[in-house]
Design brief:
Layout lengths: L5 E2 L2 E4 L2 E5 L8 E3 L6 E4 L8 E6 L4 E3 L8 E2 L9 E2 L8 E3 L4 E3 L2
Antiparallel strand pairs: 1-7, 2-3, 3-6, 4-5, 6-11, 7-10, 8-9
Length: about 100
């Protein structure tokens, strides 16, 4: 079994935190080609590079499905096409309890 890696979060109020968006690597956009020219707003963070999350329990751990990258590759190259279905694209999730992305 893989080791759980704790992810740093910025608590903004009780039950709410800000995380850097793993899907766009905090840049706010998605690449239009391999040269990493950011053309479209990120579908996960809306272009801000950060995500507001509402949660019940801490700590947040790296998503084991996407390995903290926030997306699902269409093949073995690192071109992420879809946000991760487990973590919603943030690359992390609380270790237990309910949670949701507020944006």
């Amino acid at each position: 079994m893989a080791e759980l890696r704790i992810v740093h979060i910025e608590i903004v109020s009780t039950g709410k935190a800000i995380l850097s968006c793993a899907y766009c690597e905090g840049k706010g956009g998605v690449p239009s080609n391999r040269r990493r020219e950011w053309q479209e707003p990120c579908p996960v963070c809306g272009g801000s590079g950060k995500v507001l999350v509402e949660f019940e329990e801490e700590p947040f751990v790296e998503c084991s499905f996407c390995e903290g990258k926030g997306g699902v590759p269409p093949n073995r190259r690192r071109e992420w096409q879809e946000p991760c279905p487990v973590c919603g694209g943030i690359g992390a999730k609380p270790i237990a309890g309910k949670w949701r992305i507020i944006k």
